[in-house]
């Protein structure tokens, strides 16, 4: 892609400069798309023009004077600054693209000395007065009908867009999604992931999608050994597999894939015999309580999944001195309909991408680091039924209507021996990527991500839902494209591989194209797990996109006549959106159906991959109506982001989210609160003064819209912190769960420092948050200065 820069005037602030430029691609790597390296993408350099008051020029008149309603004089000066203080932000509930009430109209006066002796002075003055009255009335009429027509045109344009979206989406049918889902499931039973990737590529190409390609990476995978792991009770010498079944020679020789893949990828391997210590959920308070009672060095922790990121809890256990971990999910944390007491699951200890190339892509010639395991702990996921055996608990304790959590008595000692065998080797992970090139802004991308089955992983089939939905949307979209329509921005469809091992496919692709994606990606729409339940529609969205998502939710429920309370939050997602949120600062959104109990229970349970069968998915959504709803909701958001002249992002909502995140009992420095207040002021001014012309097509000067969109798409990049605890999002706008609104890194640092003599960790977290808020405030202020300097330059 050739370099293309739009040079803008310097801001009025010394040392601050807002640069808007296209992305450089220094080279074209084999397999890279032509749309990521297109030499034809050129920025249109258009002059920014503003409608100004015109001066009246009449022959024989000496001068004109413009007085404002406040009798302020407009003076000609090359350094005239705009007085922005009186401008108040829009107070509409929507808050987006709302015009302000204009300042009082300027009154035009003129002065001229009349000759002292002229008999026709009165007649001349009368003619001039009558002429002025006629011109004034004519101007009002012209202005009224012009404004009426413009408003009508703007409304008509918006209505046409909505009609277009509905025409595209109405072709999406539940029955078609069900057929696609069943075909994928049948394909999976007979072929490996390479064949599945080929089928996806062939299908997308046949639908008309452009430049569909494979993007392969050779990555380091940690795989289970030839026989399943085991846990042996020293008191009885009984050996059990992770699902609670007794060990036997037959089981070892004919182990099912589900049993083999009940393991923690990238865990340490070997054998450890030690005492089992119940650490509950493994937070800082739990560990401090345990360490006061027992010596935990090289012992085995009995750990519940949930409430905090697994990687963070393992880091605390490793720091405390534990040698092993038995990981399980308490049945009380699951919906009553989910009977998983005997089910095994898989977890990955990989924070993201190929472990052998951390931070850079796994392309030919890259240096490979020797990282056979990512922790010194031996980690083994086990079923709840095995936990019950370890603590000598009767089976019926987990079937009571009032569920009793599993706990190991503190006064009892349990010695076990755990054995873990894994194999580490390089394998190929395949992504399928296709493009629908935009018509007016082809260098701006909306990425739509699904996932497909990866060999060597658990036997789940949720990926078939994800793939069926993205294919259904592509089919509907391409039907319209064949009739001559295209979106304004490019839509990139991605089916990721290697998700179960730590989002490897998406991470490697993101690292490979990082320089291009940093400048060009506008938003990420995730189709990772569309149907995980059937009782509640749950949406996760960046703060800047929550308003758009709420509008789509309300519109969807009004069509069905059912409008429950909108459930939208900015919480961490365990899916392939990870890289785009945490390393690129891209706004993201995901719609999914969940069980209400799952939403009310602990967060991060989805870090465990259960082998969900196709029959289970069809039981949850027998007619695939939920799949259809997710496809249409996601599709409408994609179309609106891809097609609206001004990106439908809300700047003010980010500032409000920051202020809400500073509420609560956590300590906040005065600097944090003051910065948050200034950020809100800048965001209000930016949204009301710079985004308001979007309502009027006359004022949509292309260069102005381009500048505005570039500010909007980069708003969240300021909130990427340099250091975050393991498993925590670097993007601090996202919370650990929907129950807490505080900044996650501040909340955890505050809890952590309570037990320490030093508050260094808290001070570091405060500094990270402070710098992020300051960077965002400077960013909005610089955006305002750019628009102001352009306006002054035009004057």
Automatic annotation (TrEMBL):
Phosphoprotein in keyword set: no
Pfam families: Peptidase_M28
Provenance organism: Balaenoptera musculus (Blue whale)
CDD domains membership: M28_PMSA_TfR_like
Stated family: Belongs to the peptidase M28 family. M28B subfamily.
Name this polypeptide is given: Inactive N-acetylated-alpha-linked acidic dipeptidase-like protein 2 isoform X1
GO CC terms in record: membrane; nucleoplasm
Membrane association type: Single-pass type II membrane protein
Transmembrane segments: 125-145
Chain intervals for the UniProt region annotation (Disordered): 74-98
Compartments where located: Membrane
Gene Ontology biological process terms from the UniProt entry: response to bacterium
Entry keyword set: Membrane, Signal-anchor, Transmembrane, Transmembrane helix
Residue intervals of the Peptidase M28 domain: 431-593
């Amino acid at each position: 892609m050739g370099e293309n820069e739009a040079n803008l005037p310097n801001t009025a602030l010394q040392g601050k400069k807002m640069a808007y430029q296209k992305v450089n691609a220094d080279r074209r790597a084999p397999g890279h798309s032509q749309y990521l390296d297109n030499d034809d993408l050129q920025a249109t350099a258009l002059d920014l023009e503003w409608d100004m008051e015109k001066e009246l020029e009449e022959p024989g008149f000496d001068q004109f004077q413009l007085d404002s309603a406040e009798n302020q004089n407009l003076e000609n000066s090359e350094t005239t600054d705009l007085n922005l203080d009186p401008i108040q932000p829009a107070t509409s509930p929507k808050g987006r693209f709302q015009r302000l009430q204009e300042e009082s109209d300027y009154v035009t006066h003129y002065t001229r000395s009349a000759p002292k002796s002229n008999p026709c002075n009165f007649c001349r003055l009368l003619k001039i007065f009558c002429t002025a009255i006629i011109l004034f009335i004519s101007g009002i009429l012209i202005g009224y009908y012009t404004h009426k027509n413009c408003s009508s045109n703007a409304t008509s344009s918006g209505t046409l867009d909505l009609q277009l979206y509905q025409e595209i989406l109405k072709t999406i049918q539940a029955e078609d999604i069900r057929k696609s889902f069943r075909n994928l499931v049948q394909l999976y039973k007979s072929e490996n992931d390479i064949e599945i990737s080929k089928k996806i590529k062939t299908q997308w190409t046949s639908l008309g999608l452009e430049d569909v390609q494979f993007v392969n990476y050779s990555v380091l995978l940690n795989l289970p050994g030839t026989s399943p792991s085991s846990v042996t009770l020293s008191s009885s010498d009984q050996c059990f597999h992770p699902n609670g079944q007794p060990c036997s020679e037959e089981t070892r020789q004919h182990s099912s894939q589900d049993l083999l893949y009940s393991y923690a990828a990238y865990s340490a391997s070997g054998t450890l015999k030690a005492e089992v210590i119940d650490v509950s959920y493994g937070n800082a308070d739990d560990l401090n309580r345990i360490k006061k009672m027992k010596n935990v060095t090289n012992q085995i922790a009995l750990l519940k999944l949930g409430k905090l990121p697994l990687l963070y809890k393992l880091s605390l256990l490793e720091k405390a001195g534990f040698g092993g971990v038995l990981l399980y999910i308490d049945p009380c944390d699951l919906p009553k309909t989910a009977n998983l007491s005997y089910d095994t699951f898989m977890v990955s200890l990989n924070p993201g991408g190929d472990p052998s190339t951390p931070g850079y892509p796994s392309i030919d010639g890259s240096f490979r680091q020797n990282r056979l395991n990512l922790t010194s702990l031996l980690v083994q996921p086990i079923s709840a039924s095995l936990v019950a055996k370890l603590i000598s608990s009767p089976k019926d304790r987990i079937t009571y209507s009032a569920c009793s959590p599993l706990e190991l008595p503190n006064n009892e000692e349990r010695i076990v021996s755990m054995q873990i065998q894994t194999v580490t080797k390089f394998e190929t992970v395949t992504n399928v990527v296709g493009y629908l090139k935009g018509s007016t802004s082809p260098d701006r991308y909306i990425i739509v991500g699904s996932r497909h089955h990866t060999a060597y992983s658990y036997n789940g089939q949720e990926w078939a839902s994800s793939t069926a939905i993205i294919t259904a949307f592509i089919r509907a979209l391409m039907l319209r494209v064949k009739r001559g329509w295209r979106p304004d921005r490019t839509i990139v469809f991605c089916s990721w591989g290697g998700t179960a091992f730590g989002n490897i496919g998406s991470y490697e692709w993101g690292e490979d194209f990082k320089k291009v994606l940093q400048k060009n990606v506008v938003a990420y729409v995730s189709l990772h797990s569309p149907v995980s339940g059937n009782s509640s529609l749950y949406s996760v969205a960046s703060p800047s996109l929550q308003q758009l998502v709420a509008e789509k939710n309300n519109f969807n429920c009004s069509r069905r006549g059912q409008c429950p309370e909108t459930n939208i939050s900015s919480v961490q997602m365990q899916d392939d959106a990870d890289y785009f949120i945490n390393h690129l600062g891209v706004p993201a959104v995901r719609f999914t159906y969940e069980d209400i109990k799952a939403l009310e229970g602990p967060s991060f349970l989805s870090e465990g991959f259960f082998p969900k069968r196709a029959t289970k998915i069809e039981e949850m959504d027998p007619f695939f109506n939920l799949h259809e709803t997710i496809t249409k909701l996601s599709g409408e958001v994609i179309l609106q982001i891809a097609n609206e002249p001004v990106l439908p992002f809300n700047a003010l909502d980010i500032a409000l989210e920051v202020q809400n995140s500073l509420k609560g009992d956590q300590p906040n420095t005065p600097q944090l609160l003051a910065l948050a207040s200034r950020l809100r002021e800048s965001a209000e001014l930016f949204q009301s003064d710079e985004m308001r012309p979007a309502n009027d097509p006359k004022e949509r000067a292309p260069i102005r819209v381009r500048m505005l969109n570039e500010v909007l798409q980069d708003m969240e990049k300021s909130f990427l912190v340099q250091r975050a605890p393991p498993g925590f999002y670097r993007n601090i706008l996202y919370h650990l769960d929907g129950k807490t609104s505080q900044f996650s890194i501040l909340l955890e640092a505050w809890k952590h420092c309570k037990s320490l003599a030093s508050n260094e960790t808290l001070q570091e977290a405060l500094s990270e948050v402070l710098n992020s808020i300051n960077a965002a405030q400077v960013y909005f202020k610089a955006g305002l200065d750019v628009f102001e300097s352009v306006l002054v330059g035009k004057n």
